[in-house]
Amino acid sequence: MAKEKTPVTPAVRALRAAKVPFTDHLYAYEDKGGTAVSSRELGVDEHAVVKTLIMEDEAKNPLIVLMHGDRQVSTKELARAIGAKSVTPCSPETAQKHSGYMVGGTSPFGTRRPMPVYLEETILALPKIYINGGKRGYLVGIDPRDAVRLLNPTPVRVAI
Predict the structure, then answer these.
(1) If you average pLDDT over residues 134-144, what whole number do you get?
(2) Does the reported pTM lie above 0.85?
(3) Which of 78, 46, 88 has the alpha carbon at shortest distance from 160?
């Protein structure tokens, strides 16, 4: 079987421009399957699969939250951590408008507009993370320190 080519997405362009080494991980995307499907298909721990969530504060300012695949975000704790009154997930249409990516293929790299990034602090303890490469069914494997270098995220503890 021929090896599938790396999709050329804004995320891949951003990683290449920053000279970040990454590995390609293509899998059969399942609608609403989430990180459970990608971890199963790729044979990796779901805890190391990092989801990119687009949320908004009460003033409709968009932000990115990076969270372990097997955890949820406490929006109450997140709001408290960032000094907002409230934080809510964006609708798929709004998330796509902010990020430039379809839900299920949202990457924190190469977004349409810059947004503040919040990273679940425990992700930094992982040796390698698998994060969306900007296309449904495509993750990139990178060192979490490279993600920090590129995204300059604010570490938070908001996992539940």
Answers:
(1) 97
(2) yes
(3) 78
